[in-house]
Amino acid sequence: MNLLLSSTLCWQHSVDRVIEIANDLGFEGVEVWAEQVWFHRTPINQIIEAKEKYNVKLTFHAASWDLNLCALNEGIRQQSINEVEKSMLLAREIGALNVTVHPGKRTLTESWTQWHYDQLVTSFSSLAQFASNIGVEMSIEQMEHEKKEFIIDARSINELINDLPSTVKVTFDIAHVPLEKDILQYYSQIERINKIHVSDVTHSKYHVPLGSGGVQVETLLYMIMENQHPVILEGFDQNEGFSNLNKNVRFLRDKLNLSIKEVTSENISYK
């Protein structure tokens, strides 16, 4: 098992604190979100100290909120590249050498897809070179089947990465697969996967706690237990009581028999 905790499931806490919580609960590490580091203004040295103290793995998620790497607006496009580069530098500083990046989306209608695709290849080509220069690995996430997204399935993500250097990998997100599709078949068709995001999904909401949506237990078991790639438990929880995190943990413990603990005053040291 290579199960890590997304820092966003403990959004109220600084990333060094999330590392401590993840270690106390039995996760092997943390996927650090750039926005969380910046929002809490966490000093880099505190993250490094926590990583070394608890001897955990770190992966990384680049800035994605408010950004669009293939926006019609050139200023937004360039600033998005700048923010992802800034994320990669941060990842390198804390020793998280794998960085997940969201592809851009259409600004306009479907008829503009090729124009946006061409801009995306240009942006990612620049970012792939930047990542190579600083020694981090860029991994592009396949996205939800939403109106303006277009890097959403095996055909589109494979086309994109084959237009980019072979060093560019793919982050596979099971919650972005439509419920009527077979997740494992979807997974088998996508090339260069090096990381997996797991959470549940309903017909109206993405990234709900495990057991709250339609993803099958057997699929989750395979993804978490049989896979060699880092598997990241995803979601967002800004509740001080860790309600979403504990829903996930109870599912992992009760349905998948994993030795992950709930957050209680007895098993973590509150500060």
Set down the secondary structure blueprint.
Elements: E1 3-6, H1 15-25, E2 29-33, H2 34-40, H3 44-54, E3 57-61, H4 74-94, E4 98-101, H5 113-134, E5 137-141, H6 154-162, E6 169-173, H7 183-189, E7 193-198, E8 200-201, E9 206-208, H8 217-225, E10 231-233, H9 243-254
Parallel strand pairs: 1-2, 1-10, 2-3, 3-4, 4-5, 5-6, 6-7, 7-10
Antiparallel strand pairs: 8-9
Helix pairs in contact: 1-3, 4-5
Order of helices and strands: EHEHHEHEHEHEHEEEHEH
Intertermini distance: 29 Å
Rounded Rg: 18 Å
The percent range for helix content is 40-55%
Number of helices: 9
Q: In one word, what is the shape?
A: globular
In short:
With about 270 residues, the chain is an alpha/beta fold.
Keywords:
eight-stranded parallel β-barrel, two-stranded antiparallel ribbon, globular, 15% strand, alpha/beta, single chain, 10 strands, 271 residues
Give structural notes.
This protein is of the alpha/beta class. The chain is built from nine helices and ten strands. The strands form two sheets. It has an eight-stranded parallel beta barrel with strand order 1-2-3-4-5-6-7-10, surrounded by five helices. Strands 8-9 form a two-stranded antiparallel sheet. The longest helix has 22 residues, at 113-134. The radius of gyration is 18 Å and the shape is globular. The two termini are 29 Å apart.
